[in-house]
Amino acid sequence: MEWAPLCNYTHYSLLKGYSKPQQLAEKCKANGYKACGIADYKSISGAVSFFMACKSNGIKPIIGCTFDTFTLFAKNKDGWLDLIKLVSSLDEEGNYNKKFLLEITSKGNLISVADKAGYSPIKGDDFYKRTPALMETYYTNKDDAPLHRILLCSKMKTTVPKVNKLLSKHEDFDNREFFEQNTFYLPDSTEVCEILTEDLDMNVKEIVDKCEEYDILSSPMLPEFPTPTGESEEDYLKQLCREGWRDLLIKTGKVDDEGMKQKYLDRFKTEFDVINDAHLFGYFLIVRDIINFVNDSGWLSGPGRGSAAGCLISYLIGITKIDPIEYDLLFERFYNAGRNTGGHVSLPDIDIDVPGKKRDEIIDYLKSKYGKDNVSQMLTFGRLQGRSALKEVLRINEACSFGEMNVISKCIPNEADVSDQLQAMDEEDRSIIRFALINNSEELRDYCFVNDAGYLEGDYADYFEQAISLEGTFKTQGKHAAGVVISSDRLHEVCPMVDQRSGGEKIAGLEMADLEALGHVKFDVLGINLLDKIMKIEEVLDGN
To answer: Which of 95, 404, 467, 526 could form a disulfide bond with 389, CB atoms 3.0-4.6 angstroms apart?
Structure first.
């Protein structure tokens, strides 16, 4: 029997689903399923990760989104873009405009699955009523049910013991079915055959067959940079490099020696060839333009952060203020052609340091230059990291007092402080909590420890296991502190836009890696409060 799980909710349905896109794809591959769907609630922020996970596992991805009583699946690339438009149109409360919904769904690019009593905007052959075959899953494995319940308790602002009391009293409450049953997982092929009949299975097969194989990924789609005299981006960048060569190298005497001159020339040619092959002229010109706007406004900008200081061209055109040749900095640490594989161009990463209080003005400048619908800040997700994951598990299970919970959680270091040691661990054991158990064993031994066989033991072992499993799970969403997307297209038509829930403008509803996979170009404009303070000091000194 040919079957595929279609109505899967992932942790992109915040505190509602637990599954991870990679887990779903790997489980489908292990079960022999040829296709898999995603149906997160009023969100397609996980669609790109899901798409790539499916492709890497040889699974046909079916991209969908749930809106109240119905789920819409994209039949083709146009259907994917229609889902983007629908999600982008949701208001602050997550409500859709019914007229716009009917307009979008009338194009014939979407399939609808609705509850028997639920409303569906699609009639006819592309409308299906939910059946046992179109079951919903919220976690990948049956053993994940307790972890899913912890997320639900977090959303409901309650605890497991309190929920158990409600169950014992037979009282009704939100999400009751998830606490009563362990059935919301991805079944294997044997279980599917036991549950479903051939008749029920036909709906799934029809939906999968109607959905085409299409690609949503793209190489970078930079907006065209308006050069001053209409010359090509390449010619303009060359001109700027010549000017920088004259002012920064010739006038300072750095290339008077023929050997040094050749060193600079060789480095320039290497860098230019790489930039040319990746068609990144526009990227460097846009970054330079942002720096120039900051400087022309009389504000301070940073001299160049991290590996970007290793680029000679950045130095020549004024993006950075550090000569990489003088300090033996490597261009390859910043960017190299080896990053571009499989027809996908990976972008360099130049962090632009600007005064924190001026960041909004800089973003407004970019909107005025490239279009207000083409520029946006971007989404980021707050994750349950080691310490926060453990505190959440202990709190929701009412495992101990708040005082003891704080004592235990303080034994878990910040991930940034031990990142190198974590990378040295085997990937399957790479957990900040497990790291703490190994390295702070005496402090934590009364609660949990790693035995000689590598398993967790102790009175709190189950809680520590749960916390380890929950590490990296999404809990909240917010606005990225630095990322700004500049697109050649109107973003709400090619990228899901989400509400900040704070009365502000909508922002690009994908994380950095997923945005870049779709071809949207992200620029890091970091607001640095120290630059504001230095400017204030200069202002005071000038006044004196």
So the answer is: 467
76 — phi, psi (to 5°)? -160, -175
Side chain identity, residue 388? S
What is the C-alpha separation between 241 and 221, in angstroms, rounded? 24
Residue type, 413: P
Cα–Cα distance between 380 and 474 in angstroms, integer?
Answer: 10
Q: Is 82 exposed, middle or buried (0-12, 13-18, 19+ CB in 10 A)?
A: buried
Q: What is the pTM assigned to this prediction?
A: 0.91
Q: What is d(CA 128, CA 115) in angstroms, rounded to the nearest whole number?
A: 9
pLDDT, tens digit (0-9, with 9 covering 90-100), for 362-420: 999 999 999 999 999 999 999 999 999 999 999 999 999 999 999 999 999 988 778 77
Distance between CA atoms of 39 and 8, rounded to whole angstroms?
A: 5
Topology of 7-141+185-210 in CATH?
TIM Barrel (3.20.20)
- Tally of CB atoms within 10 A around 455: 10
pLDDT at 200 exceeding the cut of 60: no
**Amino acid residing at 525:** V
Three-state secondary structure string covering 54-82:
HHHCCCEEEEEEEECCEEEEECCHHHHHH
Mean pLDDT for 337-343 is: 55
Q: Where are the domains of the chain?
A: 7-141+185-210, 233-380+477-543, 385-470
